Structure formats: C-alpha cells, structure tokens
Please model this.
Amino acid sequence: MTRMFKTVAAAAALATLASGALAQAAFPGDKPITLVVPFSAGGPTDRVARDLAEALRKPLGGGTIVVDNAAGAGGSIGANKVAKAAPDGHTLLVHHIGMASMPTLVRNIPFKVETDFEYLGMINDVPMTLIGRPSLPANNYKELTTWIGQNKGKVNLANAGVGSASHLCGLLFQNAIQVDMTTVPYKGTGPAMTDLIGGQVDLMCDQTTNTTSQIEGKKVRAYAVTTPKRLAPAALKDLPTLQEQGLKDFQVTIWHGLYAPKGTPADIQKKLNDALKVALKDPDFIKKQEGLGAVVVTDRRVEPAEHKKFVAAEIAKWSPIVKAAGVYAD
Ligand code: ASP
Model:
C-alpha cells in the first residue's frame, strides 16, 4: 500500500468513526422515537405509554415521540417487533408484567425476555380491579360469587389474549374460586372494555389505569381490587380486596417497564434512562398516573440493572404460581 493510499484510507476510517460518534452524540437527532405498545390503543398500557411519551419529549430534546400499537398474541407481537428492531434507540418497548408471566404462561414465545432486550428502567406499579358489565345482577363481590355459582358454564371473562395481565389475573381468579369461565380474547383491554360496557361480555380483571374512570362514571360494576390493601383514589377506595373476600394470598400488581433492543449502544441507553428519570419526576405525569391508581416508580428499579433483577425475580415468582395453577397455554 502506498503512503498516500494509507493516508486516504486512515482519513476515511476516521471520518466514519467521527460520523458514528456524531450520530450517537446527537441522539435522538431528527429521527422520531417510537414507543411500541403491544396492546390496542385506548387500553391501560397504551395510556401509560402516551403519558410517558409526553413526559419524555422534553428531556429527549423536544423531538417527535410516537406510539405504535403493535397489538396481538397477548403482547408478544409488539415485544417481538422491538426485540428484532434496529438497536439504535429509536424503537422502544413499553410492556408490563407480561414480560415476567409470559415465559411461563405461554410456552412458545418468539423472543427471550432475559437476553433480547436492554432494560431501561421501570415506570410504575398498577393495581387491578375485578369489574363486570353494568347489567350484571350482583351489587357486590358476595352477590357476584352467588351469581357465578348459579351460572356455571355460562359466565365469560374478557382478556387481552393469552399471556396478558388480564389473562393471568382471570386465570388466577378462576383457579381461586374453582370455577371455569369462557375467556374472550381481545387485542387489548381497551376494546374489551367497550364490549364489557356494552354487555357483550360479563367480567374482566384489568388495570386501574383503564378501569378507574369507568368505575367512577358507573359504566361498569366494580367488585374488588387485587392488591393486599385497599386503594386511595376516591372511585376505588370503597372496593374490598379479594383477600378480604376470602381469597387468601390473592395478589396481582401490574408493573410497566421500558426496553430497547439488545445491542443498543451504552451511551444511548444512558440518555434514555436519564430521560426516563426526568419523566418519572414530572409532576404532570405523576398526577395523571396517581389519579388512575398507579404508583410511579421512585425506587431503585428505575436503574436498568435493578429493573433487570426485578424482572428476573418476577419470572421466578410467577413461574411456580402459574405452574401450580396449571394455567399454561401453547
Ligand atoms: N391490560 C391489558 C392486559 O390485560 C393490556 C392492555 O390493553 O394494556 O394485559
């Protein structure tokens, strides 16, 4: 190689390096960031993602952040889309407890929760509520169990597909009361809520981020909360816990986290995590979430390593519960 050729090649290599560094330094630059929600628009995960998109906009430089509802297959289509996306920080996933329950609940998912993602930090914890269609002839949990007993084989239960949070909660509920119900899957509990309000399905277990305003507006009947303690928002505070109603140990709390595809550069991950930390302190975001019964994460789970540890612990926690309940799906 002549000296001149070497110099040109070295300069070209330097230029490539410099432009790569610049591209990263400028992240996110002009290119929009997409938050993939693995459920339909109008549901609770969508709600969290849209509020988060707003809170992330400023700390990420004021550019465009769009929400993409890649719904279906209990949340695994959207998760898989992000697992296979370019690892450049522009395609992110907002997902819930399904990241921990899906690996046991559904035996064949096309991605690996532990190794196909970079963990960017957790967003919130959200209780669930057991709700019913407005025409259901049961005024409280006790009357509900009587009605279920009188209608064995006829009761149906909406959910967001196999592997979703509502699926998990519904399965645990059926198991706890030892009654089989017909499950009706939707691409998210947004459309499931429309059918519940319309009386096409009987029951649903779903996050308070979707149910609070419907309970408040008396559009649905509310029977219980899935947390060990009663909740604070006015519309929910009189609801008993399922534990109080005799379902000893019944406890499901949904949580949401933010993920990037595996291989996303470390400096971009850091920028995203820094932005998430700012978003989680945004008073407007906190107010919106708290009003819907959700608790914004303030503990160490906002750190990616702790987020990853928490998900691993949740997989370990749910696996024996799901197995003992015998509630897998293929
Ligand atoms: N709440 C849903 C679930 O059951 C998902 C959603 O629509 O956000 O997993």
User: Anything to note?
Assistant: The chain has two domains: 10-125+254-325, 127-225. The two ends are 59 Å apart (CA to CA).
